[in-house]
């Protein structure tokens, strides 16, 4: 998308229609190509993207409370912390044991 130039026409029409540059970028990322020069955001495209985002949110939710310890660019350990461990970590940072 970054290689595409916006014509003065599309810039004016996007302003009139309340569309942002970021809307255009997102549309081009998720749309189906109808031909070599036309893309269309279909109901299926929207459903697919929503499904992917929901799955990502579920994965993020599953990580709640996870603690990852890194030393010298190496992951040393990763675990689900207890509420006591969380309090210590936020109070004392790395020094929490």
Q: Enumerate the spans where pLDDT stays under 50 for 5 or more consecutive residues.
A: none
- Please report the number of helical segments: 4
* Strands side by side in the biggest sheet: 1-2
- Name the structural class: alpha+beta
β content, as a range? 15-25%
Report the helical percentage.
Answer: 40-55%
Overall strand count = 4
Q: Major sheet: size, sense and barrel closure? A: 2 strands, antiparallel
Label the overall shape: elongated
The residue-averaged pLDDT reads: 92
Calculate Rg over CA atoms.
22 Å
Order of helices and strands: HHEEHEEH
Structure in a nutshell:
This protein has helices at 8-16, 21-30, 43-62, 83-92, and strands at residues 32-35, 38-40, 66-71, 74-80. It is of the alpha+beta class and 97 residues long. The strands form two sheets. A two-stranded antiparallel sheet has the order 1-2. Strands 3-4 form a two-stranded antiparallel ribbon.
What can you tell me about this protein's structure?
The protein contains 4 helices and 4 strands, in the order H-H-E-E-H-E-E-H. It is of the alpha+beta class and 97 residues long. It has a two-stranded antiparallel ribbon with strand order 1-2. The protein has a two-stranded antiparallel sheet with strand order 3-4. A hairpin with a 2-residue loop joins strand 3 and strand 4. The longest helix has 20 residues. It is elongated and about 60 Å long. 0% of the residues are buried. The mean pLDDT is 92.
């Amino acid at each position: 998308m970054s290689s595409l130039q916006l014509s003065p026409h599309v810039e004016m029409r996007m302003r009139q229609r309340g569309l942002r540059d970021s809307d255009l970028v997102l549309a081009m990322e998720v749309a189906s190509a109808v031909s070599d020069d036309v893309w269309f955001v279909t109901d299926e495209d929207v459903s697919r993207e929503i499904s992917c985002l929901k799955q990502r949110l579920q994965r993020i939710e599953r990580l709640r409370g996870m603690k990852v310890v890194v030393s010298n660019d190496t992951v040393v350990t990763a675990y689900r912390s207890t509420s006591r461990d969380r309090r210590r970590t936020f109070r004392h940072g790395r020094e929490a044991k």
